[in-house]
Amino acid sequence: MSDEGKCEVCNREATQKCGGCHVVHYCSKEHQKADWKKHRKVCKPFKILNDEKLGRYLVATRDIKLGEVILQEPPLIWGPTQVTVPVCLGCGTAIKEDNYKPCTKCGWPVCSEICEKSPSHIPECQYTVSKGSKVCISTFGTIHPTYQCITVLRCLYQKQFLSDIWKKLDRLQSHCEERKISGKYEKDRIMVAQFILGFFKLRNIFTEEEVLRVCGIVTINGHEVPLTTPSHVAIYESTSMFEHRCSANCNKTFTDQGSILIKCGTHIKKGEHLSICYTDPLWGTANRRHHLYESKFFWCSCERCTDPTEFSTYFSAMRCQNGNCTGYLLPPTFIINNVNEKLPDWKCNKCSSVSSAHHMQDLLDRIGQDLQDLPKGESRAAKDFIKTYEKYLHNNHYYLTDVRFALTQLMGHEDQRGLPGLDEDDVELKARLCQGLSKLIQILAPGETRMRGLVLYELHATIAELGRRGGDPHQLTFALHEAKKVLQEAAELLKNEPACLQEGKVYKQALKNIKEIDVVLMTLHTNIGSSPS
Ligand SMILES: C[S@@+](CC[C@H](N)C(=O)[O-])C[C@H]1O[C@@H](n2cnc3c(N)ncnc32)[C@H](O)[C@@H]1O
Question: Does 39 lie in the same domain as 85?
């Protein structure tokens, strides 16, 4: 890659660019080598730009390949989520009566001596010691309001004592004005700011506005990290610059140590915006938009939100109930930019009959309630739900998709017999569900790899099982080759998932299964003489 610029080392005319970021120039390989120790810390395949609507956002400075790790960084700050049961302030896991001891200095519960000495715990420990009396927490397992202050307090500590981290936090978006309008600012003022300033006696150090700005920084930039039970929240520097899209081209995961890892989920071209999905990509459009507005204070108008059919998947559509009509109802748009604005009426794409938005919402709420009440872990109940509601919902509807995903993860795992315990129809049903879901996820959320990885893992098992049932070694050989291909794709999608989470465990199992399939294929090859590759 060559193009004119000044050498990063000697400032002479240079025609070579760094292959990692395609931003920095060098006049020679020697100068590139000499600069690498410094440049590697900032060498990323993106640059930060600014726009009136998005604020800062990231753009690829070169083509980025599917699966490439774009960014890995440790948190600037981490702490408990705003609403939480008491957790250890050293490691973030839930505290129970029998697994804690109060910190000897400040009284906040921790789960071990190591956690008491954790650098993460210093801020609240130091502020508690300074105020002159220990904290006493004696109820566990239920939400404890005192913890609301911890993550904000940890940021404020950076402001007072650690200016390097604070400078990075201070640059982040806080949406104070929007939070004032929504009432969230006032709620944080009473629940967090007044508590922090009063309880820790910090009125001489921080103003209420300063605390409230930090509340905003945590709300807008905090990522829920599922590595602990319950999850904790963490703020990352460069990751905070990723814009949101409902069909994002990047996805995030975490390392076992708590760093965030952003991976490329599609083939990204130089100049494309880099995006992650701030919400659940498998929610319907109205719910995603509402959630983004409530939590991040913007109305999404990405290409998926502006297309009511969601790329012709009809993910939010209802079946027309007008006589024998086979059409689907959708509103002409899901784009409303005001909480008080109502969605327009829904219209059938075949017979043009109209249903009020209120009626459709009522129907969706009732089905949603049934979904919530569905007994967890019972494939029979899930199948009944699908049978009842496929009469009302488009086949790809998000409620059906939700239940189908659960079903793929349940069927064949409900008892000791595993997949061999299912009758043939059920194995075939599970295979069809997995195939359908994998396709749908690829269209709606191409960057989403975790869920597709889990679905493909289940799919490989059904392909192998159906091959085994055929009883014919040639058929089995063919099926195992197919299963192996699907499994390799699943492993590729899950390879960066942390070992402590279900996805990481499935990844490990996938690698084991690939080896086992190879052994069976070898044996089949020896017996029937077909190629093992
Ligand atoms: C984590 S920050 C992202 C970085 C931010 N743009 C900045 O300059 O600091 C999230 C905020 O960025 C803006 N944003 C992100 N994605 C957006 C989108 N698709 N449409 C509109 N605003 C968006 C919203 O203001 C949102 O609250």
Answer: no
